Each structure stands twice: as structure tokens, then as C-alpha cells.
Please model this.
Amino acid sequence: MALEFKNVVKRVGADIHIYPTDLTIEPGGFNILLGTTLSGKTSLIQLMAGLEHPTSGEVWFDGKDVTGVSVQKRNVSMVHQQFINYPNFSVYDNIASPLKVARMSKADIKARVGQVAELLKLTPMLDRRPLELSGGQQQRTALARALVKDSDLVLLDEPLANLDYKLREELRDELPKMFKGRGATVVYATSEPGEALLLGGHTAALHEGRVTQFGETARVYRQPQDLISAQVFSDPPINTCRVTKRDGRFHLNGTSSWPVGPAHAALSDGPFVMAIRPHQVTPAEMAPPAEAVRVEGTVLVTELSGSESVVRFNLEGDTWISQSQGIHAAPVGTRAAFHVDTSQCLYFNVEDHRIAV
Amino acid sequence: MRKLTWLAPTLYITFLLMPIYWLLNMSFKTTNEILGTFTLWPQEFTFDNYIKIFTDPTWYNGYFNSITYVLINTVISVSVALPAAYAFSRYRFLGDKHLFFWLLTNRMAPPAVFALPFFQLYSAVNLFDTPIAVALAHCLFNIPLAVWILEGFMSGVPRELDETAYVDGYSFPRFFVRVFLPTIAAGIGVAAFFCFMFSWVELLLAKTLTSVAAKPIAATMTRTASTSGYELGLLAAAGTLTIVPGAFVIYFVRNYIAKGFALGRV
Model:
């Protein structure tokens, strides 16, 4: 049951929430909408659900045009970022509500609610009201309600964002298992690149109402089509700087240079935007990667967590971030050297920021 | 110093309760005692005043009339305000903010302004001296109030709850009645209470729009002298009974009153 957006535009008043978008989501499996706040994740999800209708363009589902079909007539379920449950219903009635509306028999409802409650560890709370539960349990209730009906499309709008760290990890591990073997197409919106990588499947990178890239999650991560997609899919932010290709080498402001690899041999000489992820920039005291170039910068901030160091430094006017294992405390204000793994560098055209090929 | 901490609240409560106590005190006295001597409690304790009110139709009908139009008004106000408040809380439309504010300005005009037009209008359509006339007249200031209170409570309910219900398959009417109304039950209670209260204490319109058949208790009470001279004991008893419904209703919404005064925006 493929979900297809054909040139969909969403405009609210004078604001464009979604720019013309073509998107085909394959049936089954996990699909991730990755983008920051206001990138259009929620707008897309509402269009997918049928809660909002496109200003122009068409939405097709399972080979049928569903553009004008109301949400009640589409077989979808949805979980919001906020813990949304019916406050005056018990947990049991909350989970049972879509089935009751669909006029399923009492015995069937009981069996299915019991099964889903078991899966989500809600069995002891079935008689309680949602607001008496912890945040994690409330969100489990919302997930249970989304799971209990056999919907064709499950929309999860940052379902874990309001949970604390421990619960988030726990539920994130369980999520893909819950939807396994259901045949439903799952769309999962998140602002965390790490979450997208953990959940796998396909990812659409979103930026200011545009889908900048859609494809297999690992592929979007490793082979971004443009700089924006690379930026969306990087946390901490990806490092960028201007480089110049000349005489078979890339030059960084005349201080550092490295040989052009076979993948980029065909590029014409001239300026490019180079991007490199923070974990591929390591302090010089660590063992350098196989293909490395040494750069130097002034340390701005050093953040040490238990096992990881994040150093922000000024590299010829650009703020760069180095993320490395272990404790590497570079004093603020001093010059420090780092190794850039040149085999992992991404090169983009200066004019349109598309990947340079 | 510490031992005197009870003093301030005691004084405060004493002064607050003084008029109510005096009313109660008077209601158990004979008129002669009230006019003749100054006594802190009834010397000749009597239930005659209350018996008179419960047996004389000119008195107890006043209560019936008042309760009738107050209840009609409360029901109309809340049921008309519910959809309006939902629209203000959930939809954006041309002039919504202005309209919403304009509603409240209806409360700012003294009822006396409307007494004359209402009197003429209701007489012309043969509604004069009926409970429905007073109930409708009170809608003028109760509906805006109810809309404001309910809008506040409704805006406290996340829009995502509506979406969740639609996704679950609820139609709008079913969602509104089965999910939404129970969710804002406290708000409906508070709105109903305020409508009840303002309609119950409003005297001017109620008096202007009635003569005999639908005369409210407050109008009956303002008649201080009758053929048998001053009946202060009787009036005190009527006043005491008039406090009761308000106190009774306020009991049910006591936990939400503060939120109601803030028009649901706490």
C-alpha cells in the first residue's frame, strides 16, 4: 500500500508550509521524516493522515486518489509528540476507542486490547485514567491505540521527544518490533539524526517545507545529494569550508592540501564546498585515519562528557566541531591540531550546493 | 505575638459574616422586635416568617418564577455558547478576534440601558411577564460570559486531541459529545454557575419585564411595606432563602471558581 504525493503544495494564508513535493513511500517498513522544528514534518504527517488537505496536488494511497477523502474514512492511526489520550476514558477504553467506533464486537475488542496491552506492558493499568500514569505509560497508551486497529498507515509524530532519555531508548528499541509483520506503512517524524539511523528503513530529509532527499536511511546519510541534506542528517552540525581543486589536490586556504581521490578525479578545477562530519575530525594526539590531513585552529569551547570530547574550534573563520572518543581537553584559546579523514569528505558545488560529481 | 495569629482571621470572618448573621437573626424575629429593640439574637424566636413564605403563593411563586427563568437562561446560554466557544478556540476566521472582544463589551453596558428597548420589544411580541422573556434578556450578558469562560477551557485542551479522535474514526458530532464535552466538564460547570449566578442576582431587567405572573422573588422582596405595615421579619426570611440556591450551586464548582473568574485562562 504505497503512499504517493504528487506535486503536493500546502499553503496557509500567505505562508507556504510545504513546497511542491513528490514523494513515494513504499508499502510496509519504516519511513523517517528527518528535519528540525518547522521543517514541515508535522505538516507532511497531517497531509498524509488527511487531517489537512493539500492546497494543490494529489495524494494517492494504494493506487487510489485519496486527496479529498476525510481522515475518518482513511484507515490511519497516529501518535503525537504530546501525550494525547482521552482524559475521561480509562486506559482500556482509550485503547478500545478506535475499535468501538468501528463497531467491533465486545469479545473481539477485549481480546485485541488485551493482546496489545500485553505487548506494551499496560495490562496492570487498564482500569486507570491516562493522567494517573507516568509520561512513558501515557505514550504507551497512545501507541497501543495506534496499534490496536489494523491501520494501513501509522503516523508517529516525534512520539519519543517528550520522554526522558531512558524511556526514549527503551521505547525506540521496541518500536520497530511492534510494527514488524503488520504490513502497515509506518511514517516516523524525528528531529534527531541518530534516531533515524537507529530505526533504519527509508529517510526523507526535510528542510523548510521541502523534501531535500528521500531514500534508504544509510544511503541518505552516506551520500547526501546536497549540502542541506547533509546538514539535516548531522548532529552535531556538519563542518563546512571552502576548498579549491588544483593540480590534482584540494587546497584549504593555502595551509593544508590533500590529493584528490578517484571518486572526485573527474571534477573540474575550481572552488568547492567541502563538508565533513564532526566524528571524522579527530584531535591530532589520536592515531590519524589512513587518509588524513592535518588542520589547525583556535579552540573556542571544549565539552567533555564521560567518554566523549566535543571541541569547537575556529578554522580560518569557520566554526568546526571535532567529536572524538576519550578525553581530549584542549584549553580554550590555544591553537590545536586535528586530523580530517579525507576519504570521508563530501564536496558540493559552490553555486547550488548540490553534490559535485 | 504568635498567640495572636488567630485574631486577624477571626475578625475578618466575623465582619464578613456579620450581615448574613443579621439577616438570619432578623428572619427569626417578629417585626415588632426588629423595630422596637436592639437584640443580638431573637428574644421571641419564631418560624412564622418562613411559614408565611412557604404557604403564601405570592411569596413562593416568586422563587418558582426566579428559578424558572434562571434555569432556562442557564441552559440557553451554555448550549449556545458551546459551539461558539469551540469555533473561537479552534478556527481562525475573518474578524474572529474583534468579534470575540465585542462579545465581552456586551457585559460592559449597564442593564438599565437595555431595560427600555427590551420592555417595548417583549411587549410587542407578547412575551412580557413570562419567564422566557427574562431568560432571553439575561442571555445578553450571560452568553458572552459563557463563551469567554468556555473558550478558555477549550483552548486548554490540545488540538491534537481533536485530531486523535478523527484519526480513530470519530465523526465531529460524536467527538464533540462523547470526548470533548466530558473533557471540559469542569468548564461547563463553571460557565453554568456564572450564568446561574448573574441571572439569579440580576434585578432590574427581571423586574422591568414582569408584572404579576412571572414576578421574581427579588422583585417581591423589594416591596418593604404592605397593607399590614412593615414586614421586616418576612423580608429577612425571604432574603435568607434567596442566598440558599447560590450557596448550593457554588458548592459544586468550588474547586474551579478561581479558574472561572480568570475566564478559564489559568
The two ends of chain A are 35 Å apart (CA to CA). Residues 239-348 of chain A form a domain with the OB fold (Dihydrolipoamide Acetyltransferase, E2P) fold (CATH 2.40.50.140). The first strand of chain A starts at residue 3 and ends at 12. Chain A has two domains: 3-232, 239-348.
